[in-house]
Every structure is written in structure tokens, then in C-alpha cells.
């Protein structure tokens, strides 16, 4: 794509704010958030605990309605959850009574696809998350990292236009986490996906995101934004790791400096 060509806008968040009504006092979680997401972007969202990251993700997913402002997908208001947006949470919510394969096939089945298409989809995405050999296992037989890969395959099999991930690797050990990062980068590249990911890990954000946004403490607002290409250099690297050069250190320090203020 030529640089002068504009990317197709997938998500538009316009002056969004959300206040939770509680039994005691209202809690203003986020306010005045506006941004657009283009097709193919990998956006990572960082911010201090409680600043409203999950609230924003749930609004984009369609689980919550903003108190003020609007959220659009391809120009249409987001009215509720739908197949266009796949969601992956920190703790994979799999159906424990179903096999790995059945978990992945659940969405395509609900969409009424033919048996042949359902099988093709589950086979393809189980291969992508490197779990073909575990298709007939029960999900309780899997490790945490494997369960998260099933959750990812299940979200991908619904062929959403965007995947929203809330701290997807937060519960995993450091080794598994690094492998999952390489896997998600590969999936993003191979499928030309659009990704929105919440993380607490600055290195994770910098090494995956083509764009990183940093939020301030509650009520959360977007305070900083970076357009990055470290993830592309990691793809070229034999070991799939990012070169932490001068530019990387500069961005990381700027984010650390900002977060230290909270
Ligand atoms: N259902 C709810 N009812 C009332 N308040 C809520 C609800 N969900 C979240 N909050 C409050 O809204 C604010 C933002 O919460 P949110 O979970 O969006 O933040 P977060 O940045 O994702 O946090 P963390 O990084 O710790 O997961 C917090 O003050 C939280 O206590």
C-alpha cells in the first residue's frame, strides 16, 4: 500500500465517556476518549490499574454502552456484541465439557455454516495456534498457555473483523508469554488481522503494537500515543525478538516517566 493511501477506518471512538452507577456514588471510569482504528493496525493500550482500559474494551466490544459519545464500526453504531468483534480475556472462558475442537467449532456452528466449512475453519485455526494434535482433548487437560491458544483459535474461527484482547497473557509465566507474543504476531501478520490489546507490560506493548496508546488515571483519558514499527523488525529477526536500540529505549523511558507520575 502506498503511504499516501489512507487505511480503511474500522473503529471510531467519538468523545466517549462512561460513568458506572453504583449503590454509593457514581464512578466516572473514562471520559472524553476519541480515536480511530484503521484496518490492519495492532493497537496496544497501556495505563495504570483502574484507569478504565477494560471499560473502553467492553464499550468497543458492545458489552457496555457509553454514557456519553459514540462508538462506530465501519460507520455503524455498535449496538451490542456481534460476530464482527472477537474478544479474548485474561482467563480463557472455554466450555469445559467440550473438546478443544468443539470449542473452536462452536461459533461457526452457531453461525449455521456447513459441516465442511466448520471443519475447515477449526482445522485451519487449530493449526495456526499449533494445537492440531490436541483437537480431541478435553480443555481441562491443557496448560494455561494452551487454553489461551484455544480461546484465540475460537475467537479467530468466528472470522471477526477485529480481535479485542484484555491482558490475554497476564496469567502466563514469562516463558509461555514470550512464545504467545511471537504467535500472536504471526497470526496478526498471516491473517492481516486488526488487533486491540490491553497490557500492563510496556515491553509487550512496544514489541507487538504498530500503535501504543497510554491512558491517564481515572477518569481515564488517552494521554500519549506512539506509532511504532518494532514489531516489523521482530518479524525479520531470526529469534522473533525486538531490537532494543536507542529509539526503543527513548519510547520506553517516556512511557515509564509518564506512568511514574501515578
Ligand atoms: N461494573 C462496575 N461497576 C462499578 N465500577 C466499576 C465497574 N467496572 C469497573 N469499575 C470501576 O471503573 C474504573 C475503571 O475500571 P476498569 O476495570 O475499566 O480499569 P482497568 O484500567 O481495566 O483496570 P485494571 O488494569 O486493574 O484491570 C475503576 O475505578 C473500577 O473500579
UniProtKB/TrEMBL annotation:
Keyword terms of this UniProt record: ATP-binding, Nucleotide-binding, Transport
Keyword Transferase: no
ABC transporter domain span: 11-242
Molecular function per GO: ATP binding; ATP hydrolysis activity
Pfam families with a match to the protein in the record: ABC_tran
Record PROSITE patterns: ABC_TRANSPORTER_1, ABC_TRANSPORTER_2
Record-linked PANTHER family: ALIPHATIC SULFONATES IMPORT ATP-BINDING PROTEIN SSUB, TAURINE IMPORT ATP-BINDING PROTEIN-RELATED
Name of the molecule in the record: Taurine transport system ATP-binding protein
Amino acid at each position: 500500500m502506498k503511504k499516501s493511501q489512507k487505511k480503511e477506518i474500522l473503529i471510531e471512538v467519538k468523545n466517549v465517556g462512561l460513568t458506572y452507577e453504583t449503590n454509593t456514588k457514581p464512578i466516572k471510569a473514562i471520559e472524553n476518549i476519541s480515536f480511530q482504528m484503521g484496518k490492519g493496525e495492532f493497537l496496544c493500550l497501556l495505563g495504570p490499574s483502574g484507569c478504565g482500559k477494560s471499560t473502553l474494551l467492553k464499550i468497543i466490544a458492545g458489552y457496555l454502552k457509553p454514557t456519553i459519545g459514540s462508538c462506530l464500526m465501519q460507520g455503524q453504531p455498535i449496538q451490542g456484541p456481534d460476530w464482527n468483534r472477537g474478544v479474548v480475556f485474561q482467563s480463557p472462558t472455554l466450555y469445559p465439557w467440550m473438546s478443544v475442537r468443539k470449542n473452536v467449532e462452536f461459533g461457526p456452528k452457531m453461525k449455521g455454516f456447513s459441516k465442511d466449512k466448520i471443519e475447515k475453519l477449526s482445522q485451519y485455526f487449530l493449526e495456526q495456534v499449533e494445537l492440531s494434535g490436541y483437537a480431541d482433548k478435553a480443555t481441562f487437560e491443557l496448560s494455561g498457555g494452551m487454553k489461551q491458544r484455544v480461546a484465540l483459535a475460537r475467537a479467530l474461527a468466528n472470522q471477526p473483523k477485529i480481535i479485542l484482547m484484555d491482558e490475554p497473557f497476564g496469567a502466563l509465566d514469562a516463558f509461555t508469554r514470550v512464545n504467545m507474543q511471537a504467535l500472536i504476531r504471526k497470526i496478526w501478520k498471516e491473517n492481516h488481522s486488526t488487533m486491540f490489546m490491553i497490557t500492563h507490560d510496556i515491553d509487550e506493548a512496544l514489541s507487538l503494537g504498530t500503535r501504543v496508546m497510554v491512558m491517564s488515571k481515572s477518569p481515564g483519558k488517552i494521554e500519549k500515543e506512539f506509532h511504532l514499527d518494532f514489531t516489523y523488525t521482530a518479524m525479520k529477526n531470526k529469534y522473533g525478538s525486538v531490537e532494543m536500540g536507542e529509539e526503543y529505549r527513548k519510547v520506553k523511558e517516556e512511557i515509564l516517566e509518564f506512568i511514574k507520575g501515578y
